[in-house]
Amino acid sequence: MPRRTEIAKLLSEKPIGTEVKVMGWVRSFRARRFLILNDGSCFQNLQVIVDFERFDEALLRKIQFHACVAVQGQLVESQGKDQEVELLAENIELLGACPADEYPLQPKRMTMEFLREHAHFRMRTLTLNAVFRMRHGLAYAIHKYFHDNGFYYLHTPIITANDAEGAGEMFHVTTLDLACVPKTEDGQVDWKQDFFERPTNLTVSGQLEAEIGALALGKVYTFGPTFRAENSNTTRHLAEFWMIEPEMAFYDIHDNQDLAEDFVKYLISFALKHYPDELTFLDQRLRNEEQHLPKDKRRPMGLIEMLEFVLAHDFVRITYTEAIERLRRSKPFKKGRFQFEPQWGADLQAEHERYLVEKEFKKPVIVRDYPQQIKAFYMRQNDDDQTVAAMDVLFPYIGEVIGGSQREERHERLQQRIQAMGIPEKELWWYLELRRFGGCPHSGFGLGFERMVQFITGMGNIRDVIPFPRTPGNAEF
RNA sequence: GCCUCCAUAGCUCAGUUGGUUAGAGCGGCGGACUGUUAAUCCGUAGGUCCCAGGUUCGAGUCCUGGUGGGGGCGCCA
Q1: Fewer CB in 10 Å around end: N or C, chain A?
Q2: CA–C1' span, A117 to B69, in Å?
Q3: pLDDT value at A144 more than 70
Q4: Are A116 and A469 contacting, i.e. CB atoms less than 8 angstroms apart?
Q5: Structural contact between residues A389 and A406, judged by C-beta atoms closer than 8 angstroms
Q6: What is the signed CA dihedral for A237, A240, A246, A252, rounded to 10 degrees?
Q7: E strands within A408-450?
Q8: Is the pLDDT of residue A394 over 90?
Q9: Nearest-nucleotide field for A104 (CA, C1')
């Protein structure tokens, strides 16, 4: 009895004439003769030829959609045209039945909304299968890119007492009994009795801690879960998402932009090179989806074509001030099509970003030097005293994929900003000390992992590129 | 948080100005078929029309409230 072989190995090595054993889930069983198996080792399936007269009728009946079977037999050259090799079944064993009259999934098109309600089965579908293989590949590519470029992977804390980052609403972390919260004499919550003896939260960013790393190791990056308790209901937001945050000593805002562009392009080229089967499928899927849309709502390019296009062109780099000028000269503004007026001092709205990326330049755009009043306290003030060295990388369809900045390394300036913005200075004592003791110019950015996966897979909703999405009111799986 | 749309068979949907017994395709189940690739063909079962209330002679259809979900905006990554 041969040992089990993974389908990926059979399809790449094609040991024709040998006796093999595979295990996998049934994708389809046509004419009681053609059994299509997938074992997750690759996106491709293996076709098994079943001579039904040689097998027990009761067994054949149980070979249903997504049932799990083990098949032993000889690998031969295929007579059909869509595969090179196939397996002639000599022995079939049912590992796990999947009664079709009760199983919610069906071998047909299902909506993403329906699949989300069956999240424990959904990655068995072709689309989610392709997405999560890609997600893995990109996670690997991220580590590889940074490792190959001399970065160190820094693990920043998930539980933090830092309340000053200002990146968003936070989830509280406590072991206190919520039904009976201990109070101090003046009626406040007595945090001294909590686990950490102070209020703590789930992190909204590892950036401030990454800066500690950068000022010792030179180039570091974080890659971990991040939490935002915002009541955001969009196709681009999650309450729990994964963020990549490189932080580099001696990098200014231009070095930062160079890195961001090179990094993102590396991820795209990695996907194109290593996941052609998945991308071809996702490309076709997107075409099929868009057939239901009116022509003007469809994407101008297919998925793969768009990825190649992004790789082939330099990202546009403009200042915020220039972006506002261009927006005010634009057709949609003159025709009153914008809901919000582009105005110096106000943040760019989603409609403005979309116009710049999809209409004006038709490629990714990096906007830098934003007004300081709309950006975070730690961003470095420019010499004009009005703007800060912030940058956002804007992509078609998903908008802001990266936000970053050169950090304010001058102690007095940073302290002034913290005071001006009313942030409790006491909590940031260690952050300020980084500027007093051996500080240096440094920069970094945050990339939303799921948004990148969304862009590369063409998925419209961010909930379909993370296995177990956390959104307001939803934590079932 | 704001705005908006949707909820009919297991799934995707149709259902006319309110009218009698609620439909299709796919899937399921039963059968035929030994080279299929979304197989095909024949047959068959399957419904609390999301929930509660209201208008009406009569509600899947209209109104109010609720629940669940989608999309847009804001916040951001």
Answers
A1: N
A2: 10
A3: yes
A4: yes
A5: yes
A6: 40
A7: 442-448
A8: yes
A9: B10
Tokens encoding A376: 């975070």
Q: What is the pLDDT of residues A259-311, one digit of tens each?
A: 999 999 999 999 999 999 999 999 999 998 887 777 777 888 999 999 999 99
Residues 6 or more apart in contact with residue A40 via CB below 8 angstroms: A24, A129
Burial class (CB in 10 A: 0-12, 13-18, 19+), A96: exposed
pLDDT at position A166 = 67
Residue whose pair of structure tokens reads 């089965």 in the numeric block: A121
Residues A23, A68 contacting (CB under 8 angstroms): yes
* Nucleotide with the nearest C1' to A398 CA: B77
CA–C1' span, A291 to B14, in Å? Answer: 20
Torsion of CA A234, A235, A236, A237, to 10 degrees: 50
Which domains are present in chain A?
7-103 (2.40.50.140), 126-168+204-315+363-464 (3.30.930.10)
Q: From the CA of A100 to the C1' of B25: give the distance in Å.
A: 19
d(CA A75, CA A89): 9
Q: CA of A179 and C1' of B68: distance in angstroms?
A: 29
pLDDT at A261: 98
Residue nearest to nucleotide B25 (CA to C1'): A108
Measured distance CA(A225)–CA(A244) in Å, rounded: 9
| pLDDT computed for residue A477 by the predictor | 85
* Nucleotide B3 C1' to residue A230 CA (A): 18
Q: Which nucleotide is closest, CA of A232 to its C1'?
A: B75
Q: For residues A194-202, give the mean pLDDT.
A: 95
CA distance A443 to A253: 7
For residue A38 the two structure tokens come to: 């997938």
Q: Which nucleotides of B are covered by protein (CB under 7 A)?
A: 1-3, 10-13, 26-30, 32-40, 68-77
User: Which nucleotide does the CA of A448 lie closest to, via C1'?
Assistant: B77
Arithmetic mean of pLDDT, A464-476: 92
Nucleotide nearest to A350 (CA to C1'): B73
Residue A114 φ/ψ, nearest 5 degrees: -65, -45
A418-455 pLDDT tens trace: 999 888 888 899 999 999 999 999 999 999 999 999 99
- Tell me the CA–C1' distance in angstroms for A47 and B42: 28
pLDDT on residue A296? 73
CA A154 from centre of chain: 19
Give the integer Cα–Cα distance in Å for A200 and A428.
15
Residue nearest to nucleotide B10 (CA to C1'): A104
Per-residue model confidence (pLDDT) at position A1: 73
Q: How far is the CA of A164 from the C1' of B3 (A)?
A: 32
Structure tokens of A384? 């004009």
Contact A253, A368 (CB under 8 A): yes
